[in-house]
Design goal:
single chain, Rossmann fold, 7-stranded parallel sheet, 3-stranded mixed sheet, 12 helices, 12 strands, 43% helix, globular
């Protein structure tokens, strides 16, 4: 199958590209630069020039493939709400390109869109990131085979998301902070395990949502303790109000309990994550290099 992948040179997207090619699929990867084209060629993928801002390029890529896996997302979390709205428009555009075809669209979301413990059957709450799920549901209602892969904290070499952000804040502030007793949890998965969920959903998925969750919940306190030890700084508990000065706009995520199950995904897709778990993976020098 020929698959158009957005975010094809990104942290998750590159893992998806490699997994698809390893399973015998061909990949058309979206990239905006010669550097991106070279990276895709090195992975064995074809290059489709364009960007998330160029809707026509996205539609052209979708029309040139048998399926679309949309992993791209603007990870400037300081403008998170706007990024979520942008992603809604991208999903709608991809859906327009696939309407009245037998092609597949797989959209990326996050387990944090659910209030409370998340399962594949949990509807999204009133969260900005839910915009992508609502857009995907609208595409599905038009007869397009549409699925959502919800991601937890994705880790591994090249990680640039929440865990490195907490490490950088701790380094800057001279403290590794957790909130209250630090028992709020983050579900987690290694990037290569996450990539297999996309492929398995493409090949045999029949449900609307899948969870790429290897660990249901890692206590935030444990992340802070590894951070403190690695940076040789104090590990400190603070109230949420006190911690706001440390975390800034990130306080919502640092305080959130984002635990999730993948029982349905494992049963339906035969997915068995085999990669390293979050705590031993982050407890390596690569996570603490400046």
């Amino acid at each position: 199958m020929r698959v158009f992948v957005t975010g094809a040179t990104g942290f998750v997207g590159a893992a998806v590209v490699k997994d698809l090619i390893g399973a015998g699929h061909s990949v058309l990867g979206l990239a905006r630069s010669d550097k991106g084209a070279a990276e895709l060629k090195a992975m064995g993928a074809d290059f489709h020039q364009g960007s998330l801002e160029d809707i026509d390029s996205l539609k052209a890529g979708a029309k040139a493939a048998d399926a679309v896996i949309h992993t791209a997302f603007n990870h400037d979390f300081s403008r998170f709400v706007q990024s979520c709205e942008d992603d809604r428009r991208i999903v709608e555009a991809l859906g327009d390109a696939l309407a009245s075809t037998a092609k597949t669209l797989i959209v990326t979301s996050g387990v944090g869109v659910v209030d409370g413990f998340a399962t594949e059957d949990s509807e999204p709450g009133q969260h900005a990131r839910a915009a992508s799920e609502h857009a995907a549901a609208a595409v599905a209602s038009r007869g397009v085979r549409t699925m959502i892969v919800r991601l937890p904290q994705v880790h591994g070499d090249g990680d640039h998301a929440f865990v490195p952000l907490t490490i950088n804040l701790a380094r800057e502030k001279g403290q590794a902070v957790y909130i209250g007793d630090g028992a709020n949890r983050w579900a987690a998965v290694h990037r290569f395990d996450a990539a297999r969920v996309y492929r398995l959903a493409l090949e045999k998925g029949t449900s609307f949502r899948y969870h790429a969750v290897a660990e249901e919940g890692v206590p935030f306190r444990d992340i802070a303790e590894i951070t403190g030890r690695r940076l040789s700084i104090p590990v400190v508990s603070k109230t949420k109000d006190e911690a706001a000065a440390h975390f800034g706009w990130f306080i919502h995520f640092a305080a959130a309990d984002m635990a999730a199950s993948s029982a349905k995904t494992r049963a339906e897709l035969g997915w068995n994550p085999a990669g390293p778990k979050l705590l031993p993976d982050m407890d390596r020098p690569i996570y603490f290099q400046q």
